[in-house]
Amino acid sequence: MAYVINLTNGSQLATVEDGTIDQSTSLKLVGKNYAGYGEIQNENFVHLLENFSSANQPAGPLSGQIWFDSSSKKLKFYDGTKFRTTGGAEVSSTQPVGLTTGDFWWDTGNNQLYAQNSDGGFVLIGPQSIGDTVTAMVTAQIRDNAQNNRTIIKGTVEDSVVFIISPTEFTIDATDPTNVITGFDVVRQGLTLRNTTSGTDGVTSGAFRFHGTATNSDKLNGLPASDYALAGAATFTSVVRFADSGFTVGDANDLAVFIDTSGSGDEGVIENTVGQKIRFKVKSSAGVTTEPFHVQSAGLIPTATTSFDLGDTNFKFRNVHATSFIGLATNATNLQVGSNFRTGDVSATNNTVAVRDSSGNLSANIFNGISTQARYADLAEKYATDKNYPVGTLMMIGGEAEATACENGKGICIGVISTKPAYLMNSEAEGQAVALVGRVPVRITGPVNKGEAVFVADNGTASVDGKGNMIAIALESNDRHEETLVECILKL
User: Fold this and answer.
1) Does residue 471 lie in a domain region?
2) What is the pTM assigned to this prediction?
């Protein structure tokens, strides 16, 4: 009879059948009458005695299970989701998850101790500095050049002083090397950045900068405010020059004016970076603003039809070069045919050029000519299908629409889904082109020899087994056993 194993809370853990072993937990649970159970039972006791000591956590842990992590030398317990350290801090280089309020985390990357607060975040306990160097706001005393002690605050990162805060201005005593602070000679009242020495007149050399917004400034890059133009009321009294990169106009840099140096020479460019066109507006002699044209990707486009001219009677363009002209030309209303000029007509009128009517039809009494060839090899007709079938599928009448895939013993095959019909009947109808006559690729399952008869199989495929109706003759051989498209001539 099977053993039913229950947890302490009474819920069923596992059912162990007779003569079997259950390994769903970290221990092997032995069924009744299992041969050689002694070794397994003793190993279970040993594993419990050593608390599953291993560098890897035990498989199939249960809530409350204890594990000695031999890699970290820590005793851990399983909380139903993960193994947690029973005492001391969680040790990792990344912020752990699953801890509770008051739990400690030792950050091995920075050698700092954190405690988890009630909000689920971590509060730094210490040390404040990261690593082996000093990174902190440090209070210090240094001597000025009058041998007076000055109390300052040093903003220090990895033992390097980035800035000094002082209530007074003074010059550091540089005669004592132990009193010197690298990058500083004069400490100003307030905050002084590194490399802002007396010789730079308040301009910081190197990369040390204030990054943010200042409500006011005495100078900008060492120059007084009077040397700068205001963005809202700029006035220039001399030629203004821009680099080849040019300038932009608009809140989103909508229009760019620049010099393109990528070609054979410098070329001026006006480019819209936002929108689809560049518009041109001109004021007339009467003071009325008009917009005669705009430039877009398609070319030069007027803003209204038949409203604006290109040139006039007094000022003409010399030559106009184009591939084609679309529109009415006053001196080209007829088409030259040989030595004669013919007009166009939608009806079958003598000595006129045949023109399609409003329905797209072309009228003539007789069409004379010879069609020498067709590009493709089958005659097809469109049929509505119950779904979109791949090329080569055998089709029959049926399904939810007009046609569906052939099934052996059901219906009559009407044709095969065509890829490129030479002639397509009912071309404006919805559906797929079904080849009725000619040569077309056919979905054939199994080997086939050139010249063999091909018969209807299942799922719209064909084979040479002769069980269904014959539909085609193979025009090529194929030795593959899986489904393959084989060129065939239809024999429906």
Assistant:
1) yes
2) 0.31
